[in-house]
């Protein structure tokens, strides 16, 4: 068991559940000595999985070195977040009273970093037990689900596929009269309106949480009531964007008449909370073409996952430019609310939660992650053709 844990596989992994049930069912319990026959019988439900773990046939074969290097990256991120800025108020969106109120209530020193590979190897640092509102991460999950439910033609009818210029506000639209992309505040609200369209608004949150539950492999999931109540009272920019979309007839049919209820569902969605551990599993599900690495359940089709990741790269071109060929295909989402999620397709999902509430610092953290991951690991296909002996994780 110690060897399995040293490979990054937790003993709580669902793939080990039946094996542990059989161990507990032994006459003398888990402390008894097992014969070879009993051991084979107990391990049979997870035989291929355990064999792969023991033979290091996993995404990250050298977990001990990987853990050491990721620990150093975590400390660098912590230093970035602890640095005092000379313009602390200017780093917060001046139009977002929600961010100001949340910063007053939440500890700015809380931070967590978690990783999950497409094989289910997991690693975490910091406060991994405290749930954090998803905020921008929820939009990523919601858009992927909306793409499944509505199809690419409907999605392209409502959304553009370009980054919102820095000099444009949330009330502006692209040259085609659409919201710039699904990951702006206006785009996030339209995405929420496209979910479970045939269902009564009051029933949508339960259905959405069932989807989240499958995405994270049944890890803990809850609602952050503080975030939800603050959004209802202080997220004026999002509320304004929603009514502007309604007034300009850019919402799906039926939502304009239920604008208050639709906003309520939108705020409940973004205030859904999970630990960074759970969010990393969700990111790994996207990295694994929509299949949850812990349960092997196919949650999302590959086409919808691919469409979402492509739009993510388009919506944050400046920061994704730091990846280049160093992190092939990396995509992610983040916001001033302190939620960060990165997806490296076919390899790993990463989440970082903090109550920093500064988009400047969040951008610095994302840039640090890109640069440090590239400097220490070889996730890209093309880099594996080069002689980079100092890099861990050659693929």
TrEMBL record:
Q: Does the keyword Hydrolase apply?
A: yes
Is this entry keyworded Hydrolase? yes
Catalysed reactions, as listed in the record: L-glutamine + H2O = L-glutamate + NH4(+)
Query: What does the record give under GO molecular function?
Result: glutaminase activity
What GO biological process term is on the record, naming one? Answer: glutamate biosynthetic process
Tell me which family the UniProt entry assigns to this protein.
Belongs to the glutaminase family.
Q: What is this protein called?
A: glutaminase
Organism the protein comes from: Ciona savignyi
């Amino acid at each position: 068991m110690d060897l399995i844990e040293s490979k990054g596989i937790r003993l709580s992994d669902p793939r080990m559940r039946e094996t542990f049930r059989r161990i507990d069912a032994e006459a003398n319990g888990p402390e008894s000595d097992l014969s070879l026959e009993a051991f084979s019988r107990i391990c049979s439900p997870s035989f291929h999985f355990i064999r792969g773990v023991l033979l290091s046939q996993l995404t990250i074969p050298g977990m001990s070195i990987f853990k050491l290097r990721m620990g150093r990256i975590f400390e660098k991120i912590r230093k970035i977040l602890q640095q005092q800025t000379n313009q602390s108020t200017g780093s917060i969106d001046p139009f977002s009273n929600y961010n100001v109120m949340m910063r007053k209530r939440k500890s700015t020193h809380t931070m967590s970093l978690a990783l999950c590979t497409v094989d289910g190897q997991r690693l975490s640092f910091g406060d991994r037990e405290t749930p954090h509102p998803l905020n921008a991460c929820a939009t990523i999950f919601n858009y992927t689900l909306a793409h499944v439910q509505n199809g690419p033609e409907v999605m392209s009818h409502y959304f553009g596929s370009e980054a919102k210029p820095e000099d444009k506000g949330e009330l502006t639209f692209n040259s085609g009269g659409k919201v710039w992309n699904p990951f702006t505040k206006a785009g996030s609200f339209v995405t929420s309106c496209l979910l479970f369209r045939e269902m009564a608004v009051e029933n949508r949150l339960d259905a959405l949480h069932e989807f989240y539950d499958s995405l994270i492999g049944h890890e803990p999931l809850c609602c952050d009531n503080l975030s939800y109540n603050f959004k209802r009272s202080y997220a004026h920019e999002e509320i304004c964007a929603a009514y502007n979309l309604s007034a300009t007839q850019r919402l799906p049919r039926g939502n304009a008449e239920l604008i208050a209820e639709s906003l309520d569902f939108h705020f409940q969605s973004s205030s859904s909370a999970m630990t960074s551990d759970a969010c990393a599993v969700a990111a790994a599900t996207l990295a694994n073409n929509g299949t949850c690495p812990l349960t092997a359940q196919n949650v999302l089709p590959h086409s919808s996952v691919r469409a979402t990741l492509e739009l993510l790269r388009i919506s944050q071109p400046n920061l994704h430019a730091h990846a280049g060929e160093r992190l092939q295909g990396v995509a992610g989402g983040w916001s001033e609310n302190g939620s960060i999620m990165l997806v490296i397709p076919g390899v790993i999902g990463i989440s970082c939660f903090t109550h920093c509430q500064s988009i400047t610092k969040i951008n610095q953290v994302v840039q640090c992650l890109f640069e440090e991951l590239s400097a220490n690991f070889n996730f890209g296909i093309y880099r594996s053709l080069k002689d980079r002996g100092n890099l861990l994780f050659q693929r």
